[in-house]
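Entry 14. Two folds queued back to back today. First construct below, sequence then structure tokens.
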Amino acid sequence: SRHAQREMIGSNLTYIAQRVFGWPLYSKVFVIMCAMVPLVLIAAAAYKFVSDEEWGSAISKTFFWLNDVPGADSTGEEHWRSTVVAQLIVFCGMFTFAILIGVVSDEIASKVDEVKTGNSKVYEKNHTVIVNWNDQLIPLLKQMAVAKDEGSGFQRPIVLLANKEKEWMDETIADELADAPPITIVTRQGEAYNAEDLDRVNA
């Protein structure tokens, strides 16, 4: 039936969109730029139809309006039909620009989140490494924070390696040490007996 065909087409488009948005940033931007080509041609054809412009002029004007090029005036049309089409083209340009900004913003947000929750190598020297998580850890960190505040040591970052999720460790330490003097604590998820994990914290 037609309804089933529409659902199938919608599911296929959704799947394709999910695949595309899973690509790297440059690939997604390239897809958006490629999608601009048929959009420019369709918009140019509509503008040419209502304004009797030549193809070259219609395409150039459409491209300028879609990309909001400085100096491109979409309000100077003589006939109301071409004015309406020009404004619709400008609106489509705003929509595509919003998609592009959304894609870039989402990529930046995901990279920032990846850095915050990542488990990459720690590039520190002369730092203190603590392994494992237990009930004595928070009191120990508080004592270290006080010692640093009094100038008694621990001026370099404290690196914690434990078999806990990094995000959970960061949130727990931030909550428990909220009233303690400031101290830099870097967390990494791993095992104390694993040579690769120990190398990750530069132990």
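Second construct, same run, same settings:
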Amino acid sequence: EHGEEHGEEHGEEHGEEELHAEHDHGGQDPHFWFDPTRVMTGVEVIRGELSAIDPEGLDHYVGQSEKYLIELNRLDDYIGGKLDVIPADQRAFMTGHDSLGYLNDRYDLEAMESIIPNVDSEAGLTPDSLVNAVKFIKAHHVKVIFLEESYADKAVKAVADETGIRVAQGLNVETLSDPSQTYVDFIKNNIEIIGENLMSVP
């Protein structure tokens, strides 16, 4: 195992609940694909269902799934190798919305949902929300925030100016970059971004 379940701790009260309104998944993190071992479970379930529907294709489904399970196991090892080397005091980071809980649990990171509000929201970047964000980042020693294209850069820039937090662009948690990209490539690209930025923080 590369990590233990320890959940996301946000510590202090952050003020109004609107800070988390953007890109809400109803309190659930559906991004299970950031833990390849869970994807392996999914492959096994799909194999069983296809085999039940098409018994004559059993050998094919078993053969193909076994090949892919080996690939997923290698991916799990790859991620562990990339992330295990990150020092304990550099493993805390922030994301635009709850998306890396499974990665967090599997590989013992400290991924936290951003408390920086979207300036396009009704509340916008208020003085109180800016103060709360700055206090949280400093209290939890967060050094990096990873942004997706849809996140509001203006709010993040204001907080970054106050805290010195690194703003890392390019994280892609929900869609493939193009039709030719595989799941394995998709995960590796994100892990490279996360690993490189966490390893290079001061």
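Quick look at the second one. The longest strand covers residues 92-95. Residues 58-84 form the longest helix (27 residues).
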